[in-house]
Amino acid sequence: MTFMGLLKKFPEEKDVVDYYVRVRYGNIVVCPHCGSIKVYQRNSNVKVFDCGDCHNTFSPFTSTIFEKSSTDLRKWMFAIHIFLNGKKGISGLQL
Ligand SMILES: [Zn+2]
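ok -> structure tokens follow
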């Protein structure tokens, strides 16, 4: 897959977040604070969810390598794709 192919599959960063959430949680995101399923994804920051019951915020990326990254998740996805599919691997500098 090329980077342009990845951009076709994930035109916006929100598409990557939605894909990640589907893989990690299935179709139901659960608030880690109270266990409620009444959660809403923010429009202003798609990486943050708000709980409708306890009013806490959380990120589905907590405790992952993406937690404090401000890099677009599409770039991360492509980097992971290159790293996993390279026959001889790839150095950090080359990446
Ligand atoms: Zn909650």
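The longest strand covers residues 39-41.
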